UniProtKB/TrEMBL annotation:
E.C. designation(s): 1.5.1.2
Listed name of the protein: Pyrroline-5-carboxylate reductase
Source organism, top-level taxon: Archaea
Organism listed in the record: Pyrodictium delaneyi
Keyword annotations: Amino-acid biosynthesis, Coiled coil, Cytoplasm, NADP, Oxidoreductase, Proline biosynthesis
Pathway: Amino-acid biosynthesis; L-proline biosynthesis; L-proline from L-glutamate 5-semialdehyde: step 1/1
GO MF, one annotated term: pyrroline-5-carboxylate reductase activity
Name of the gene: proC
Residues holding NADPH: N74
Residue span, Pyrroline-5-carboxylate reductase catalytic N-terminal domain: 26-115
Keyword Repeat among record annotations: no
């Protein structure tokens, strides 16, 4: 397991770090869509029994064909599970919370939803031990870098970390960093895929055949990441090692600098972080409304 020299993280667990025997555990994944079904597969590969939920029949059928117990009944899944993961879209959460809110007391519940803060999760899931996690799509190849916010006096911390380790590495974070983590690591694969796509188009533009272009770009990215991951070298140092005075690389770097690639990426990550914060406000308003309506109709 590699431990970052530059990282803020206080705890890191590798994919090999399943310290707990997870095989007797039943875990509910509520909202087993794109990321939820990848989580379900990862937990299942760690020996966990998974109950996955979705709304549409076709999705439930597909989950069953993938070997999971699957249902549209979230309350049934929550009652049967010792640990609950929530992976619906943020705007779908208020409806889900209404269904399961009175059935989660005493259980650990992990939300992977962007934006929704612990405060709001606690309010809607009374008595549950609530965590926030932000994995990424690379969990499909056991290479997620999952950010984890652990509540104070957590009883289930180790078991949650072991479960998340089934998807890759786990970094414990303070809650104020999770929106930024969402932008960098959660959205990261999409941003990096855009870069890869652009490099492949660039390779085609200079005449490299498509399959060779794909390999040249992907292998260069994996190799560069591995180089930086395993050596005490700053990215700017690596860049200087490659750049010959008057050579080819400096010509490319000049264009990149002129078009503002760094500033575009910094802006992009700042905007994504701001969007996660705004999501929290939007959901909060909708939940406040829901609670006010419930209270006033029960008076
Ligand atoms: N995609 C990603 O890379 C990542 C996403 N996330 C977070 O994960 C969450 C899910 O994202 P993603 O997987 O992309 O979205 P999807 O739309 O693919 O998945 C959401 C799933 O939730 C199901 N669902 C919605 N409402 C309910 C309900 N009341 N009961 C049961 N199931 C329900 C939907 O079912 P049906 O299909 O039947 O409508 C759907 O399958 C989001 O909150 C996102 O912020 C976090 C990290 C990475
Ligand atoms: O785009 C989103 O909102 C989610 C969160 C991180 C990745 N996908």
């Amino acid at each position: 397991m590699f431990i970052s020299r530059r990282g803020f993280a206080v705890t890191i667990t590798g994919a090999e770090g399943c310290e707990f025997r997870l095989s007797n555990l039943t875990v509910a994944v509520l909202g087993a869509g794109k990321i939820g079904s990848i989580m379900a597969r990862s937990f299942s590969d760690c020996g966990v029994h998974v109950i996955a939920t979705a709304r549409r029949k076709e999705r439930i059928e597909r989950l069953r064909m993938q070997g999971f117990e699957a249902t549209s009944d979230n309350v049934h899944a929550v009652k049967k599970a010792s640990v609950v993961f929530i992976s619906v879209k943020p705007y779908q959460y208020p409806a889900l919370a209404r269904q399961i809110g009175s059935h989660v007391a005493g259980k650990p519940v992990v939300s992977v939803m962007a934006g929704i803060p612990l405060r709001l999760l606690r309010k809607t899931l009374p008595g549950a031990e609530v965590y926030r996690a932000m994995p990424n799509l690379n969990a499909a190849v056991k290479r997620s870098v999952t950010g984890l916010v652990v509540p104070k006096n957590a009883q289930y911390r180790e078991i949650i970390k072991s479960l998340l380790s089934c998807m890759g590495s786990v970094y414990e974070l303070p809650e104020q960093l999770i929106d930024a983590w969402t932008a960098v690591a959660g959205s990261g694969p999409a941003i990096i895929a855009e870069f890869i796509d652009s490099m492949i188009l660039a390779a085609l533009a200079v005449g490299i055949p498509r399959d060779l272009a794909y390999d040249a770009v992907l292998e260069s990215i994996i190799g560069t990441a591995e180089y930086l991951r395993t050596r005490p070298v700053h990215p700017a140092q690596l860049r200087d090692e490659v750049t010959t005075p008057g050579g080819t690389t400096i010509m490319a770097l000049k264009v990149i600098e002129g078009k503002g690639m760094k500033s575009a990426l910094i802006d992009a990550v700042e905007r994504a972080t701001a969007r996660a914060r705004k999501l929290a406000k939007e959901i909060e308003e909708s939940i406040e409304e829901q609670y006010e309506n419930t209270n006033s109709s029960s008076v």
